[in-house]
Amino acid sequence: MSHSTQSHIRLDKALNFLDALLKPLNLAYKKVFETRFGNKKFNYSCYYGTNNILTTLLKNLFRPKRMLVKLLYGQLIPLPSFFCLSKPIKKEVLADTDKTLYQELKKEGIAKDSENFSEFADYFLEKYSDLLRQVKKSDTYFSHFLTNVDQRTLEFILDEKVLKVFSRHFNNQQPYLRGAPFFVGTHPNYQMKHTRETTPKQEKFNVGWHYDSPNLVQTTMLLKDLDLSDTRMQIAKKDHRFHRIQSGILDYYYSDEFIQFKKDICNLVGEKGTRYLFDSNAPHRVFLKKDSLRIALNANFTPGNNNNVVTSAQDDKPTFQINKENIDLDRLSEIQREALRYVLV
Predict the structure, then answer these.
(1) If DSSP codes are grouped into helix, strand and coil, which group holds residue 215?
(2) Which residues constitute the domain of residue 94?
(3) Is the separation of the CB atoms in 263 and 306 below 8 Å?
(4) What is the CATH number of the domain that holds 211?
(5) Sheet holding 232-237, edge to edge
């Protein structure tokens, strides 16, 4: 295990220890405040997610780990290099960043690439045809981490255009692949229900409006045509900068009423080969249409925190690393090679 990986693990343990010390205060908050400031129209059952400033401030004080991770990786304010845990990228490297794509991601929290990659999508589907055959109608996802990913697919995932946009989004810090890229098939055998009729923790699909790890951005490419009649991802636009945190299970998810009243929803649809970049701190979910198939190629990036390999090493779970025997690193640029720091084995 590398020194940098060990440093991330030590930090995570320290922040978990701090969370444990503050647990009594968080429990007191949950008992007194968790549902008190709820709006009956928006908050019910297990849907007490809210953007209320007072409750969010209290929750960040009593559960500071998420905010501290943002701070220590340079995502709140600029930090001196000796104190910041992320790695800065020289401005001249980012000089040719796709400004339109970056500005859309920064403003909206999601950006649709103007290019279409249907030719690569066809290549991928032929190369990994065995994965598509394994996707069956079900009440859960079929997902597969590409630990033996081929060179062409890896170079697509590490497209410099994407890396530079993500670096700018990370305040000019190096983006790191969180784990191996992964194929996801969603072929639901039931119809989506309103949040008043669902309990997300009992569902195997991510049907609840939720958010992910701090500093996490994602890229997803559609492997088939999708429109509004299909199973698809949805994301709440312009809500990725909010410093949300949960105090417990009741306030993690957002209700349909809250999202539909407060937010502009973006549906991730388009032709095969359409690529989206998005910040998953914004509430998002999968919207299910019975018998409708969605297949996609995904990858997650952070400025160094919470990568799957570090998490796996700490929790003694299977890792999501990439087999470097299949990869010619000499064909990759410096920013691409660095993005692989935590995932090559």
Answers:
(1) coil
(2) 3-339
(3) no
(4) 2.60.120.620
(5) 264-268, 232-237, 284-287
Measured between alpha carbons, how far is 275 from 298 in angstroms, rounded to an integer? 10
For residue 344, being part of any structural domain is answered with: no
Maximum Cα–Cα distance for the chain, whole Å? 58
Does residue 269 sit within a domain? yes
Asked if residue 212 has pLDDT above 80, the reply is yes
pLDDT for 248 equals: 83
Is the Cβ–Cβ distance between 272 and 40 less than 8 Å? no
b/e for 217-235, b at 16 or more Cβ within 10 A? bbbbbbbeebeeebbbbbb
| Residue ranges in 221-333 assigned as alpha helix (H) | 256-262, 308-315
- Tell which phi-psi region holds residue 166, choosing left (phi > 0), alpha (psi between -120 and 50) or beta: alpha
Over the stretch 263-321, which tens digit does the pLDDT of each residue have?
899 999 999 999 999 999 999 999 999 999 999 999 999 999 877 666 665 665 556 88
Q: What is the pTM of this model?
A: 0.93
